[in-house]
Specification:
Chain lengths: 114, 114
Amino acid sequence: KNQVEQSPQSLIILEGKNCTLQCNYTVSPFSNLRWYKQDTGRGPVSLTIMTFSENTKSNGRYTATLDADTKQSSLHITASQLSDSASYICVVGDRGSTLGRLYFGRGTQLTVWP
Amino acid sequence: EADIYQTPRYLVIGTGKKITLECSQTMGHDKMYWYQQDPGMELHLIHYSYGVNSTEKGDLSSESTVSRIRTEHFPLTLESARPSHTSQYLCASRFRGKRIDEQFFGPGTRLTVL
């Protein structure tokens, strides 16, 4: 069964600190992995997209890594800011269907305290 | 920021009412999607469309219906709303980038059925 699991479920850190969010998946055949940021009451916004040939991708203070062999990804946030408080969703795409199906994790709820 | 819009943003209605959630995008994307999201849970695909006059049901069974008469417009209709329909509804559209499809989400409609 194609699944995307994220950990931790929630995380609280102090402003200025770094943190790392984890994503494990069983989606096959694998096509791509995306990280989205979703603010409360808003739609998800794309942070990074990686294909199987990429093992790291950065977007400002966000750096995503991908290990396609172990089917794991992480999202590292550097020097956190209050505006980083949001849910971070790991999404994995397959290449086994015309739809280009996306599988969503439940997200990690990050809270940054001043 | 993506040019994909949803109205209304919030809706509180009584049981048995007919409602239509609007979604429009000005990017000319052929593929459009509707997702349902409950708090702390993953997004579930309920409808999708590959283009005008194309609509398909997603993974999550839904009593809602959709139509795609114009490329830019993908409304979702509930003929008779029930409390079980209370949820956040997210519309998305996708285009084929140089390497990979990019998917953009609207801001969502928070529906509450009393």
